[in-house]
Each structure stands twice: as structure tokens, then as C-alpha cells.
Amino acid sequence: MYTIGEVSKMVNLPIPTLRYYDNEGLLTNIERDSSGIRKFNDKTLESLRVIECLKKSGMQIKEIKEFMKWCSLGDQTIAKRKEMFIRQKEHIEQEIKELEMALAMIKFKCWYYDEALKDGTEKRVKKLDPNDMPEEIKQLFEHTHQPYRKESITKLI
Amino acid sequence: MYTIGEVSKMVNLPIPTLRYYDNEGLLTNIERDSSGIRKFNDKTLESLRVIECLKKSGMQIKEIKEFMKWCSLGDQTIAKRKEMFIRQKEHIEQEIKELEMALAMIKFKCWYYDEALKDGTEKRVKKLDPNDMPEEIKQLFEHTHQPYRKESITKLI
DNA sequence: TCTTGACTTAAAGTTAACTTTAACTTGTAA
DNA sequence: TTACAAGTTAAAGTTAACTTTAAGTCAAGA
Question: Is 0.70 topped by the overall pTM?
């Protein structure tokens, strides 16, 4: 059994956030001692692990609350819960793809500004043809600078 | 040259969002025609691409605004801009790592609920020893269920 | 007995990034 | 000349997920 302060330190979440999660129904079956103090246990810690993961996967608090309710309803909600995790798996995979796209752009910009810094000016690198870039950088450029319209030429900023 | 409606369709952002970005100083040098209508160009499109990428990397609007100001100050801000991209690269790499951790947990849960669905109950899979899980699933489990305290046994929910 | 630290509550406040509203202008087509 | 579509503004509203505040309880140590 743990107090709210102990759990706060273990999972690295502020105490008011834990109370907020409890009030919102994300933590089921939190016991209280005779004077009303919350007694958390290892099941709470596992719940918090799952809550963090579902939040990362893009779920809102109220959706996580629903999931927790399903958990408490037992075996009759297994199919629902499985489908939910499949949806969140797809969601997070899409999010990772988008972040990797953004990362490619950022890596290109790191190279770009490194070149500009060596020159002391953006002049040369700004009008460089992709074919004159190192192969790896050219790949990053082409991956991230697909034109919005076929006729337009992608410009750097 | 494009109108706000054309840009909205091209980059798939609502018109008020483009106006908001303009008002916040994220889009520099937006020209207007004689009756005050914004005239966007290919440089705007490239700015919007960079804005999306910086937002994905965790930057706030006001920080992006600062970056755009640096861009307009020219070569004297190259070092600053490079350092900013290096910071954002680290930030996004960390974020991808965290999302991959969450994904591992979700993949484990997909397997878990698939087993439970086959059994019609969580009973068996809930108390399964990691050593009796398929190797791949055991890896996911151990990667995502490190105990908060060494003495505690990780429980599923 | 008094102070301290850790807990409790309900309710109000915060923040970022939009989003909506209401009122207006302008250029073209019927 | 009237209607419509697409643009304009300033200002108010929305939303989620906390976070802070104010007031109180309770057990242990000096």
C-alpha cells in the first residue's frame, strides 16, 4: 500500500494530477483508510502505466475512463477492449510515421544550416540543386519537399 | 500567387488557422492586393511546411514566431537557427522513443486480449508467467513492465 | 499543547491553439 | 441592381488537461 505522495514520486506525476485522475474515474477501486486517506496499491501503478500509454497513443481522459469502466465489467468487454487497442495501435503507428517525416525535415535543416554556417551565409546552400547535395541529404530533401502542386518548384526558407 | 482559400485546400488547414498564423507573425511578408486581400506565394507554402514540422517537434507558436523573425534577420542568425534545429531534433527523437515504448505496451495488450478472447476469459492470460509467453511477446512485456520498485511484482490490469 | 507535514475537499484559474461570431467589403454573374 | 461567393476585421468563445487556491483534518514529535 502507498500514499499519494509515494505514488507521486514513483510514477513522477504531481499529487493533484493523481487526485484529478481519481476524480475523473481513471483509477478504479481506490481504498481509503479510516480518516479518508487514499491507499494505492500495485494495481494502481499498473493502471497508471496503462493510462500513460493510452494518453501517448492519443486518447482523451474521458475515453480512458470508459476503458477503465470496461475493465471493471469483466470478461464480457474483452472484445471491445481488444478492438480499442487495435485502433490505438494504428493511431500511434500513424503518429510515429508523421514524427519521422518531421524528423527528416529537421535533419535536412540541420545539414542546411551547417553548410550555411561554414559559408557564413545561406546564399550558396539556398539555391543548391538537390543533385549536388550528398545522397543522404538529397533523399531527406526529396522525401520532405514534395510540391503541393506539380508545376511549383519547392523553395527553401 | 494564391488566395487564402486556395492555400487552405492545398495545405489542408482551415482558413481561420491561416489567418491566425498570419496574425501571430508566423507568415512573414504576406502581400495584400489593392482591396486588402492576402496574396500567398510558394514561400508561404514552404513556411507552412516548416511550421507543421516545428509544431510536430513540440515547439509552441510563439517560439516558431521567434524562429521566423530570425529568418528575416538574415545571415547573422544562422548559428541560432542551427542550434534550434539541433534541439528540436533531440526533442523529436526522444518523443519517438516514448511513442515506441507506448506502442510496445499496446502491442502486448493486443496479444493479451487476443488470448483472452480465444479463451473467452482473462483468467488464464492474466496470471501467465512471462516465460510461458511467445518470445516476442515476452520481450514486449519485459520492456514495458519494469517494476517501479525492485521488490514489487508487476501485475496486469 | 503547539507545530509541522501530509493528507483531504470543492471550486476557481490557467494555458495554448485554435474556432466562432458578427459585421463588413468587394468583384463578378444573372 | 441584386445576389452570391469569397475575402476582411476585432473580439469573444471553446476545449482539454491540468493546476492552484483556500480552507480544513489528522497523527506524530518537541
Answer: yes
The residue with cell 488566395 is B3
Cβ separation of B100 and A99 shorter than 8 Å?
A: no
Distance B3 CA to D4 C1' (A): 18
Cβ-count burial of A53 within 10 angstroms (0-12 exposed, 13-18 middle, 19+ buried)? buried
In three-state form (DSSP H/G/I as H, E/B as E, the rest C), the secondary structure along chain B is CECHHHHHHHHCCCHHHHHHHHHCCCCCCCEECCCCCEEECHHHHHHHHHHHHHHHCCCCHHHHHHHHHHHHHHHHHHHHHHHHHHHHHHHHHHHHHHHHHHHHHHHHHHHHHHHHHHHCCCHHHHCCCHHHCCHHHHHHHHHHCCCCCCCCCCCCC
Contacts of B60 (CB under 8 A, 6+ apart): none
CA of A7, C1' of D27: distance in angstroms? 20
pLDDT, one tens digit per residue, over B48-102 is 999 999 999 999 999 999 999 999 999 999 999 999 999 999 999 999 999 999 9
Side-chain-side CA neighbours of residue A88 (13 Å)? 31
Work out the minimum CA distance from B84 to partner chain A, whole angstroms: 9
E strand or H helix at A38: strand A38-39
